[in-house]
What we know:
With 396 residues, this protein is of the alpha+beta class. It has one domain (17-395): CATH 1.10.630.10. It has 14 helices and 10 strands. The protein has helices at 17-24, 44-51, 92-100, 105-128, 135-140, 142-152, 159-170, 176-197, 205-215, 221-251, 254-262, 267-278, 310-313, 348-365, and strands at residues 27-31, 37-41, 56-57, 133-134, 286-289, 293-295, 298-300, 305-308, 370-371, 393-395. The strands form 3 sheets. The protein has a 5-stranded mixed sheet. A 3-stranded antiparallel sheet has the order 4-10-9. Strands 6-7 form a two-stranded antiparallel ribbon. The radius of gyration is 21 Å and the shape is globular. Residues 58, 84-85, 96, 148, 230-231, 234-235, 238-239, 242, 280-281, 285, 337-339, 343, 345-347, 350-351 line the site of protoporphyrin IX containing FE (HEM). Protoporphyrin IX containing FE (HEM) binds next to helix 10 and helix 14. Residues 56-89 are annotated as: Disordered.
Amino acid sequence: xxxxxxxxxxxxxxxxxxxxxxxxxxxxxxxxxxxxxxxxxxxxxxxxxxxxxxxxxxxxxxxxxxxxxxxxxxxxxxxxxxxxxxxxxxxxxxxxxxxxxxxxxxxxxxxxxxxxxxxxxxxxxxxxxxxxxxxxxxxxxxxxxxxxxxxxxxxxxxxxxxxxxxxxxxxxxxxxxxxxxxxxxxxxxxxxxxxxxxxxxxxxxxxxxxxxxxxxxxxxxxxxxxxxxxxxxxxxxxxxxxxxxxxxxxxxxxxxxxxxxxxxxxxxxxxxxxxxxxxxxxxxxxxxxxxxxxxxxxxxxxxxxxxxxxxxxxxxxxxxxxxxxxxxxxxxxxxxxxxxxxxxxxxxxxxxxxxxxxxxxxxxxxxxxxxxxxxxxxxxxxxxxxxxxxxxxxxx
Length: 396
Ligand code: HEM
């Protein structure tokens, strides 16, 4: 029985075993670090089935939920209110709808001029600074962090604090007590910040949520802290990794990079392909079966865990022609890099807009961009639940 999680040995490819599983044993059992077993599903069709079926719960606080932490201890649990990420019906729908209006295509379009300004300012600073520069520090991390901070009404000046703590939370090796402490620090920080907004709620996402839930008679600071926490963490680390990895893919495929520079109308398609190709959130998208269900001819029983391997699904030849090729011109939008079904990424329009603006601007303003370190020497995040690169020295 395979031991999970498997690591990516090549930044451009899934763990080798994914392809074999998808072909020969698409719904199969694996061993988790705590010694327990879980199902893994690897085909595009099956991943979408599981993620769209209420027989599979997203309640990560349940003791039987598959846990990939090496210590094999239960996931951190405390008195935090649940966030939408861990909710099932009937709670999930209302929690998601309460904030959905902040992430519509129209809302995000209104933020584009400010996003463009942020990207330009970061590039001004990078271009004025020494070479080589670390793309992660100069561009990938600050852009999504600033955007989500401004949306929420969190002072960007505190970004070091929550970036350090987020990194500790998602690193698989972080001992559970440290993980819990990092989690508690960000939660206490947000609690204080939100308390400070209660007297005169400002016109930012957190302030608007205070007013809205007060008007509905159900304001509860603990729930808003959990929402703020989820958005802050989900909103910067993921997009940041995609900025670095997407840049890496373009640098490794100069003809496609030139094609994109010549025709920015292709950038949105390129972004979908980058999301598919790297699928940075892979084993994290897990579920707990709550009613016996057949998937691909195999019965998964209530009480059993399932990892839906998005990176395997996104390389499924049944869903994508020549799936291992990076091709910015392919139709890739049916990828599952943002998940699928009711929990599909709430921030996807925001992430797409950020990535589109970043790549358009980077290609236009820094045409001579190149890596200052060979790809093989880059420190990839093989040890984190969300894939990416820690540092990426570039020059121009
Ligand atoms: C959910 C990926 C950016 C907020 C998810 C899920 C995935 C994902 C795979 C589904 C998790 C599951 O089903 O268990 C990504 C990727 C991103 C990204 C790859 C960047 C490239 C963002 C941003 C935000 C965000 C920018 C917000 C500011 C959320 C939220 C959920 C979520 C709130 C939970 C939705 C729910 O449970 O209903 N994301 N995400 N994400 N994402 Fe993202």
